[in-house]
Design goal:
This protein has two domains: 43 residues, no CATH class; 91 residues. Helices cover 51% and strands 9% of the residues. It contains six helices and four strands; from the N terminus they run ββββαααααα. β3 and β4 form a beta hairpin. The protein is globular and about 60 Å long. The mean pLDDT is 82.
């Protein structure tokens, strides 16, 4: 058993509370996973951002070794399915991230764009997102929120969202 004690990092807790059930003392965990999203005790989502960045980079590295055997369209599909699905899963929770965390996610997306477009790692990548029809991370989050708001306003969203 474990639980997550969520508190402000500016709080004045000298010690974190623990829960006692019978003879068992359960200390609070530092992170908890819910639906694949890692939450930390301050709700900064830093552990989740780190896991989002680590996994695609490793997979992109593996794909880069076999890309010479793949057609360009197959490489684009593979990379987009791996990186896109990881970066877009539960991205509504990531909408309010700090710039330093967003830059880590953007770096993951940029490295995948370098692989697909066959550009060198240090070349500028400004024209590649338009060719691939990919938006920068910050704009992806903004579009998601705007679409949800539009659907809620015009009654096209789920019932519980439209009532807000």
């Amino acid at each position: 058993m474990e639980f997550l004690f969520i508190w402000s990092r500016f709080g004045r807790f000298s010690t974190k509370p623990s829960i006692t059930i019978g003879q068992e003392i359960i200390p609070p965990a530092t992170t908890a996973c819910n639906l694949g999203v890692l939450f930390d005790e301050n709700l900064t989502l830093k552990p989740h951002v780190l896991s989002l960045c680590k996994s695609p980079i490793l997979q992109i590295h593996c794909i880069s070794h076999i890309k010479k055997f793949l057609m360009a369209s197959a490489a684009k599909t593979i990379v987009h399915s791996i990186v896109g699905s990881r970066l877009n899963y539960c991205n509504g929770a990531l909408a309010g991230l700090l710039d330093c965390d967003l830059s880590k996610l953007q770096s993951s997306q940029n490295s995948s764009m370098h692989l697909i477009s066959l550009t060198k790692k240090h070349n500028h990548i400004s024209s590649v997102p338009m060719e691939l029809n990919w938006l920068p991370i910050r704009q992806q989050f903004l579009i998601l929120i705007l679409v949800i708001m539009y659907k809620a306003i015009y009654g096209l969203a789920l019932h519980h969202i439209s009532q807000i």
